Amino acid sequence: MTTPPRSLASALFPIGLLLIAMASIQSGASLAKSMFPIVGAQGTTALRLIFASVIMLLILRPWRAKLTTKSLRTVIIYGMALGGMNFLFYMSLRTVPLGIAVALEFTGPLAVAIYASRRAIDFVWIALAIIGLLLLIPMGEATSGIDLTGAAYALGAGVCWALYILFGQKAGNDNGVQTAALGVMIAALFVAPIGIVHAGAALLTPALIPVAIGVAILSTALPYTLEMVALTRLPARTFGTLMSIEPAFGALSGLLFLHEHLSLAQWLAITCIILASVGATLTMRNESKPLVPAD
């Protein structure tokens, strides 16, 4: 008995969810940057994750998840990777334009995709990624170069993103969409002390609360939930290819909301990294499930 073909609406539904999630994340990052002068990147990350964990706790009710000792360890690592990714990404945004920070961070999932394939064609994608990085990382007295410390933070966020993918897939297989809530709660516990020590009483500024809730919804609660839903409905290549355009979403969001104008070389660098990611995704071996997203 053959399986009936999916309707166009059901095929486009997860793609639409993923595009909304990417736009939401980058819009939230733009909004979060407005909080930096008051509580810094550290405090902003803490507020984002604290409010997001409360929201996702109420919506997804993660206490219903059935955790074993092994799955709990995986979820804890997943949550810590998520917290580190968010923290380091916001630290990079202090001195690096949003689109560039996303592109540098994206080297993490790109490395995972290339490692999963390990074919000769992957040297082309590696070369494209290296070209993109060389165009972004400061070289000599290049005026278009970016802050080296900020770039290091973004690359560190990419390492955490790679860990998030590897452990998030395992955790998601065990507990489904509730994994997102569990991960955010653990990330909040991991990052909140850093934000509290850095910002102190400023975290309780009344005017920040609505902004922090908005950031939590746009950057965490909404996109992570949508991504987990899309994750179960898209094949690996489609999912990975769509996620590859996230640096472009970041650059456009920075341009529209933060008035961050990038040079031609920087746009070219972002394009190289996007093409490397798309190529690595399309040529990787068949997998039963797609890679877990993030930012």
UniProtKB/TrEMBL annotation:
Principal subcellular localisation of the protein: membrane
Keyword tags: Cell membrane, Membrane, Transmembrane, Transmembrane helix
Superkingdom of origin: Bacteria
Membrane topology classification: Multi-pass membrane protein
EamA domain span: 149-279
Transmembrane segments: 39-60, 72-90, 96-116, 123-140, 146-167, 179-201, 207-226, 238-258, 264-282
Subcellular location: Cell membrane
Coiled-coil segments: none
GO cellular component terms listed in the entry, alphabetical order: plasma membrane
One family name in Pfam for this protein: EamA
PANTHER family per record: EAMA DOMAIN-CONTAINING PROTEIN, OS03G0707200 PROTEIN-RELATED
NCBIfam families: PRK10532.1
Protein name as annotated: Threonine/homoserine exporter RhtA
Source organism of this protein record: Pseudomonas paralactis
